[in-house]
Request: fold
Amino acid sequence: MNNDVVVTGIGVVSALGIGVDNQVSSLKAGKSGIGKLSLFSTRHAPMVGEIKYSNEQIVELLKLPKEKIHSRTTLIGLLAAKEAFDDSGLKILMDGNDRGIRIGLISATSVGGMDVSENFYRIYKEDRRKGRLRYVKEHGCTSTQIIADYLGVNDFVTTISTACSSANNAIMLGARMIKYGMLDAAVVGGTDALCRFTINGFSSLGILDKELCRPFDENRAGLNLGEGAGYLVLQSSKTKSKKIYGAISGYANANDAFHQTASSAHGEGAYLAMKKALDMSGLSNNDIDYINVHGTGTPNNDASEGAAMIRIFGKEVPPFSSTKGFTGHTLGAAGGVESVFAILSLYYGYIWPNLNFSTPISGLGLVPETSCIKRDGMKSVITNSFGFGGNCTSLIFSSL
Reply:
């Protein structure tokens, strides 16, 4: 089994709260964080997974200068990245003036600083004398640089944006760089916040569910959007870190090149991503104890992903669930948030429930786990994140 790269730190913020402990307690209890939107007004009135802290409260938690204006995407990213960084012990190394370790930050986002830009645009429309759009510096890459500066990471810093597979691709790149000796450690994951632009855009696609989303249910009607951030700290398996959550034993990215926003009916991209990740890991189908599926709750995604799992596993599909019924779909951050959930599943021995499920999808017959299951001795878990344009990424985490 490939175990060159291990996970030594995790951090997450979502609609379930700030920090890993809040996620675990809610996942075990089957308590969703999705509710009515309250961050801002919109005619669509969707159900969303929003973080119950204002920007001002997050600034206080981070002890940032109040005069500094950051996007919400940046702020929640700072919370999760700091937790992961502190959890890993890298901060202690840096404070001890250890200059021999090369640390990178690979952060993903799709929304970026749009919440700042759209507010500026409203003011600019009313009075064009009030600034210029070029002065709005919270573009997509800005959050990454601010997080890197906050952590003191500068050996390698980059941003990935491949829609909803962004954070999984960030994790994959970090793992590859460590495996090939380009970095000793990497903070990897993603962050995205809710804003009017996102809600209006997904509403125009007709894929928002005004009720609680129902992943893998016959009567699913669309997704609930969410906001969040999730980061991992990756290091070489030769690390002397006292805490290791598991190894990244396989990863792959594939594209079904089918449609701008839809997946193919037989799930070619999803199939290739999972299959190639399995091939890389050297694991057999029977070694997979749980799949954290992408499972958005849209008619197209769930049918396509289900078809891909059947192509790989046949009648023996491992226990699976979508955790988006807890957090909503956090877009570019989804892979980061759900990779944390997958690692927690492996580390603590839990299979998380798929909320709001009642009837299997016609023609597939797949039934996700609907209650939290304690399962000791778990070996490996897969987590999937699939983006618009057919950009599909699967990661496999394994115990050591």
